[in-house]
Amino acid sequence: MARDSTLGELLRSQGVSRRAFLKFCTTTASVMALPASLVPAMADALEQAKRPSVIWLSFQECTGCTEALTRSHAPTLEGLIFDFISLDYHHTLQAASGRAAEEAREEAMREHAGQYLLLVDGSIPTVKAYSTIAGISNLDMLKDSAANAAAVIAVGTCAAYGGLPMAAPNPTSAVSVSDIVSDKPIINIPGCPPIPLAMTGVIAHYLTLGTLPALDHLGRPQAFFGENIHDRCYRRPFYDRGLFAETFDDEGARKGWCLYKLGCKGPVAYNACAHVKWNQGVSFPIQSGHGCIGCSEPGFWDAGGIYESIARGQFGTGPQIATAALVGAAAGAGAALLARSKKEKKAAAHAASE
Amino acid sequence: MSLLEFARGPAIHWSLVILVAGIIWRLLGVLVLTRGADLSRPRDAFGNFKGYRTVFSRAWPNGEFTTATRYQTIMAYLFHFATLIVVVGITPHIEFIESLTGASWPALPNALGVAIGTIALISLIALIGRRISKPEIYCSNLGDYITWVLIAAPLLTGLMTFAHIGPRYETMLAIHILSVAVLFVWFPFSKLMHAFWFVFSRAQSGLAYAHKGVRI
Amino acid sequence: MSTQVTTAGVFPSFEQVFQGFASQIGMLRQMAPKPTLTDEVRVQRAIDTLIAETNADEAVWLESCIHCGQCTTACHYFQAMGDSKYAPMRKMELYRRIYQREIGPFRWWYKLITRPIKLKDLEELQELVYDSCSECGRCTMVCPMGIDTASLVHHQRSALVAAELVPAELAALRQEQKQMGTVFGSSAEALLKMVATIREQCGVEIPVDKPAAEVMVLSSAVDLVGNGNGLLATARVMNHLGVDWTICSDGFESANFGLLSGDMSLWRKQVEPIVAAAQRIGAKTLVIAECGHAYPALRWNPMLKSDALPFDMVYMSEYLGRMAKAGRLKLTPIEGKFTYHDPCKTGRRGGAFDEPRAVLKAMDADFVELPSNKEYNWCCGGGAGIFLLERATKLRDESFKIKLNQVNATGASTVVVSCASCRLNFEAGRVKNHWDKEVASLVELVADHLIDQPAAAGTTPRQGVSA
Fold first, then answer.
1. Which residue, of A36, A204, B141, C457, has the greatest Cβ tally within 10 A?
2. How many domains, chain C?
């Protein structure tokens, strides 16, 4: 496939009708919370879009993000978008390996300097030796690759916020992409893994409008991460009525009651799982009977146990409070005993002066 | 560290430490002081023991004073009981207490928690309204107002959090927990200690009066 | 048939007694001693006194106030004047500050952030703990925390004694009692003179200084230098009862200006001779004259180990009541509608409610309780030495109106009192308000309604024929 063909040419060559194409644009616009009036402009832009160069760097990651993306669909237009981009570098999917792969990356960076999209998954160890590719540390490769990128997309919670490698005790001194790159636009698409539609939706937005979508304070596209799982969860009426499953096997669990007490982090998790769902809308964790683990939130691995509800304390307080009690007792009794002797002295002085 | 992590972590942790240490310090610092003995002969041999009943009987002012005290007594009880019910009755609180102590009990339906919490807040507002409108009676000082604010804040933020109104849930929850932490730090150094003192202050005067044969 | 009282003209009426006292009290202000110590020393002495006198009880009460405001509803001074400074809560503020700075559990912090005590603070305290608190205890009845404001006020009076800040009239009387052992010019000689007058003019025998007796009776300066009827009535009743009684000239004074001023070493100095005399004569019962504060000075003072004493201490109304219940008081029926005012120190702060009522019952009195009665009755406003303070006149007068309305509400024509201070205050109020009610003393009422019977030694025929 020549690099210079447009998306329109590609789609026609795949037998996608104009009608299906427009339907895709409408769906994408709606998913990205863009106004319907943009659809014609979006269609035109996509029609004319040249294949953008995309470099995908994988650092300390489990490949789950790629798996989610590639596994999650039968041939769909999302798949076509993914095929449309010129994925010039991706460890799992690329055919090349070794020195040849690195050369392909460097050439793409040179040729499309200032225009290529850099996708990153996995966290970056700041102790360089912990993760290298072709002898180059993750840290150096990221800085190098980001230097001439148009924008960086941090895919998955590891790249966006540090994820599992950064969880206590953070043995590799791992950090997120935005900890390293500060001079380029960064979009975080967190999730462990992220919902595939989130990834392709962002790319589609960028392709059609040439801009980044509206982001929240954590750099996440609001279209996918602007809502609380809790607000869209179908089990919310049970939460409101105070009906909770206490164990995974009790009556409440079988009746599909709220999983708050079993550690569901829905109220503090922002993602699209509860309405977009997974595997083409089949289900999501809560529907399958397991509480949300809040995987799209920074530091979620350290935010209390997966089965500990949000309300539970996060401190080893018992012994420390007991110590506090003893300290208080000693101080109080001590203060009183000192006061008593002060009293006695005053009373004695008073009696002596009488 | 996000605001919620700070609130649920070090903030509530250290505030609990200060709460416990402060309460015990203040209690012992007073109770370990000398006790003056009353050397006079009691009116009746069992009089002293009858005095302890005032710890309970003072829960309601005598009929002599009903007209003047009725409104405030009712409002204050409404506030105290509603707050207590909410503090021990709603699921997130029971979860918190269970993580601290291991004890747990069935929770109230959430709607009831919101309703009772609202009653608590309204009665609290009624009380401050009365305090402000009759300054000559209340002789309020700064501590009275600070205490009111620090009690109202967890109630208000808790209601907002629980009913999911206002800012984002995790922010509201963090604010609620922080407001509780501030309250805990304030508690031992304020008039809120009356929660413990009332037993002793009532018993003391109950005994003194019972010694002379006067029922309160 | 009631005994004809032949004392018409022998002793002045109580109205005259009151007027006599009023002029005497007026002169006291000039006799007050002036402060001699420096401001710093006075402040330090006050603080030291409070440190020495503050126990866990006081500390707990100081810690417990929640500013609920209910005490204001019970206090006659606050209700009469409406001024916030008279709220009972206010009487604790300075004490609390001193306690928090000196012996409270966080004193190091309070020493840092609170202002040190100045003499001016103590001067301002004077009105709160002398003029406007009769230590009546009514606020404690309503306080949800059960704070004993009266005892906190008592300790503060003690502190003001150390700071030379006792109000003028009380300071003068305290000095007199300290130096002379008595007040208002009363003395052992005055006692003997009064005894002689009563024997000669009224034919009533008062056994003085018997080496041994069952019952020792106390008198008071009010009776000895003013209200002779008081002592006369006491004597007639005791003689009627036929008890083996005496008055000791070395321990006869009920009034205790140590207690009233807050000078507890003077308190002890006044109490010890009385106790010694009672022990010397082997008394089984000590009867206190109708002098309200003498009850807490003697019977209920926590520093007096009455458990170790071989005698009972009773108040006059208490003694009369016991006798009435035992059927030993033979009384004629009394005419008219009566109500009874419990002196704060013998009622709410003393527990002697039933006995005076038993006395009135023994007289078949048409008795009606005050709307607020017994432990809830209103203070007359003149106790704890306040009757003596000219500066407190408005406080007394205004708060007495509460009492006046209470009595009026009963429809009674006479209010019976059993305390000289109450009686003086009632008399003042009666005159100032042109009140149409009678004010009567319990013991005098009883004396006027004795069924005369030949009894054991001590009774003499009427008409001044000496035995």
1. A204
2. 3
Q: What is the ipTM of this complex?
A: 0.95
Could you tell me if B69 lies within 8 Å of chain C, comparing CB atoms?
yes
pLDDT tens, N- to C-terminus, chain C (467 residues):
333 444 456 888 888 888 888 888 888 888 888 999 999 999 999 999 999 999 999 999 999 999 999 999 999 999 999 999 999 999 999 999 999 999 999 999 999 999 999 999 999 999 999 999 999 999 999 999 999 999 999 999 999 999 999 999 999 999 999 998 888 888 899 999 999 999 999 999 999 999 999 999 999 988 888 888 999 999 999 999 999 999 999 999 999 999 999 999 999 999 999 999 999 999 999 999 999 999 999 999 999 998 889 999 999 999 999 999 999 999 999 999 999 999 999 999 999 999 999 999 999 999 999 999 999 999 999 999 999 999 999 999 999 999 999 999 999 999 999 999 999 999 999 999 999 999 999 999 999 999 975 333 333 343 333 33
Cβ–Cβ of A343/C265 closer than 8 Å? Answer: no
pLDDT digits (tens, 9 = 90+) for B33-55: 999 888 999 888 666 667 888 99
Is pTM, for the whole model, over 0.90? no
Query: How distant is the Cα of B56 from the closest Cα of chain C, in angstroms?
Result: 10
Q: Does C114 touch chain B (CB under 8 A)?
A: no
Query: How many separate domains does chain B show?
Result: 1
A328·B22 Cβ contact <8 A:
yes
List the CATH number of the domain containing B173: 1.20.950.20
Distance in Å, alpha carbon of A174 to nearest chain B alpha carbon: 16
Distance from CA of B68 to the nearest CA of C (A): 7
User: Within a domain: residue B198?
Assistant: no
Query: What is the distance, to the nearest Å, from the Cα of residue A200 to the centroid of all Cα atoms in its chain?
Result: 15
Q: What is the DSSP letter of A255?
A: T
Tokens of residue B177, six digits: 């927990």
Chain C residue numbers with beta carbons less than 8 Å from the beta carbon of A339 are 102-104, 107
The CATH homologous superfamily for domain A7-224 is NADH:ubiquinone oxidoreductase-like, 20kDa subunit (3.40.50.700)
Expressed in percent and rounded to 5, the helix, strand and coil fractions of chain C are: 55, 5, 40
Range of the domain at C115: 39-164
C72 CB near a chain A CB, below 8 Å? no
Q: How far apart are CA C460 and CA C443, in angstroms?
A: 19
**C249 and C200 co-located in one domain:** yes
Search chain C and give the residue with CA nearest B191: C66
CATH 2.40.10.340, domain A229-348, yes or no: no
Which residues, in sequence order, are CB contacts of C439 under 8 Å at separation 6+? C14, C414, C415, C417, C423, C426, C427, C430
> Where residue C377 sits, what CATH number does that domain have?
3.40.50
Strand-pair partners of C438: C414
B171 contacts chain C (CB < 8 A): no
User: For residue C87, which residues of chain B lie inside 8 Å, CB to CB?
Assistant: 136-137, 139
Nearest-CB residue to B17 (from A261, A313, A320): A320
Residue C319: CATH number of its domain: 3.40.50.1860
The neighbour count for residue B46, using CB atoms within 10 Å, is: 9
In chain A, list all ranges with CATH 4.10.480.10.
229-348
The Cα A138–Cα A131 span in angstroms is: 6
**C276 and C190 in a common domain:** yes
